From TrEMBL:
Protein name stated in the entry: Peptidase M1 leukotriene A4 hydrolase/aminopeptidase C-terminal domain-containing protein
Cofactor(s) for this UniProt protein: Zn(2+)
Native organism taxonomy: Eukaryota, Metazoa, Chordata, Craniata, Vertebrata
GO cellular component: extracellular space
GO biological process: proteolysis
Length: 392
């Protein structure tokens, strides 16, 4: 087996960034929105640590629709002085390009640096502008971002790979009469200039940063849940989901452990939203079609909530636990591994467990074969193919 495909050194062909040379410790987005020009004018401040010596360039993922205006560089975040540096763009793929930032001097390993990038995001594939007639209220325009899987590079410069996770913060200035929401654990409204301030305290990959701006109102439907909608949908959303989401969260915690994200809010998107649901940490985007009036579609939220554990966490705790049992020959725990694998259905995140079992003892290999033979009928054909490659 080629371990380079399954280790932290595996190549990610979707990114051209220098994420092996620099670590993002935190980044801040300062955004100003203009509906008339259909632009997001922004300044991104990145706090980086050099993790490979003598780096002369910083590479970031961007998109042709993202216009880079200026790049500055300084040694530490305490250093008030900065210097403008050279930058250029380089072709990469059909879905993105590369921003090449020239370092003023070679960066040393363990050196902390701060990079400030001024940019303008327009009508890119990850920034979706809606006309008033495309909304439920049909009175005001709307904009939302769609980062998954590799589209946030048209929203802001980033290391667009799930291998990189960091905290972030943002300030979003919007026109009067509009509200901004983001996939963040904390948010507040500075009314003086209609600016919304956000902080994400958990490290996340760039594709999970999400923004929506529109004629939005909200209501609490649980101790840690709020529904966001256009005004004409608020009553329906409140009645449909009052108390319901907290029940789902409580069951999730019993099964998978603590819900670490703090909030779980739901944004009911305009009718033109092209997806059923899109999970983002702390704020799931969903279609208004879920407002059936009788709660018959409420359990669709369960799928999105599960991503709070399976996908959005830095590690999948149950998955990691199963791998540890297999690796360390905890035979009394094999029954729990068997139960875990038996209930996974079409999900693909069981592959690392099969890999751990097959790389173990004769007993773990037998367990892998037994479980696959018993459950292969419920697996997606692509999952079956991948498991067969592991255990044969």
């Amino acid at each position: 087996m080629d371990e380079s495909l399954h280790s932290d050194l595996a190549e990610d062909v979707s990114t051209s960034s220098s994420f092996r040379q620099f670590k993002i410790k935190h980044f801040h987005l300062d955004l100003s929105l203009d509906f008339e020009q259909r632009t997001l004018r922004g300044t991104e401040t990145l706090q980086l640590k050099c993790i490979q010596d003598s780096q002369t360039e910083l590479l970031m993922d961007i998109h042709p629709s993202l216009s880079i205006q200026d790049v500055s560089f300084c040694g530490t975040e305490e250093d008030s002085g900065s210097v403008k540096v050279e930058f250029l763009t380089r072709n990469f793929t059909s879905y993105g390009t590369t921003l090449v930032v020239k370092c003023p001097s070679p960066c040393k390993i363990e050196e902390d640096i701060q990079v400030v990038i001024q940019f303008v995001a327009s009508d890119g594939p990850g920034v979706c502008w809606l006309k008033p007639e495309q909304t439920a209220g049909k009175a005001k325009p709307y904009v939302f971002t769609q980062g998954q899987a590799v589209l946030n590079r048209s929203f802001f410069p980033c290391f667009d790979t799930p291998a990189v996770k960091s905290t972030y913060s943002a300030s979003v200035k919007v026109p009067d009469g509009f509200t901004a929401v983001m996939s963040a654990s904390k948010g507040e409204h500075r009314k003086a200039d209609n600016t919304f301030l956000f902080t994400m305290e958990q490290p996340i990959p760039s594709y999970l940063v999400a923004l929506a701006v529109g004629d939005l109102v909200s209501a609490e439907v649980g101790p840690r849940t709020r529904v966001w909608t256009e005004p004409c949908l608020l009553q329906a959303a409140t009645e449909e989901y009052d108390g319901v989401i907290e029940e789902f969260l409580a069951v999730g915690e019993k099964l998978f452990g603590p819900y670490v994200w703090g909030r779980y809010d739901v944004l009911f998107m305009p009718p033109s939203f092209p997806f059923g649901g899109m999970e983002n940490p702390c704020l799931t985007f969903v279609t208004p079609c879920l407002l059936a009036g009788d709660r018959s579609l409420a359990d669709v939220i369960v799928h999105e909530i599960c991503h709070s554990w399976f996908g959005n966490l830095v590690t999948n705790l149950r998955l990691r636990w199963a791998q540890i049992i297999a690796k360390n020959q905890h035979q009394p725990g094999y029954q729990h591994v068997r139960n875990f694998l038996s209930c996974q259905g079409k999900q693909k995140y069981t592959l690392p467990v099969y890999r751990a079992l097959w790389n173990g003892s004769e007993e773990t290999r037998a367990l892998a074969t037994e479980i696959f033979n018993a459950t292969s009928h419920q697996l997606h054909i692509n999952v079956c193919k991948n498991v067969k490659k592991i255990i044969t």
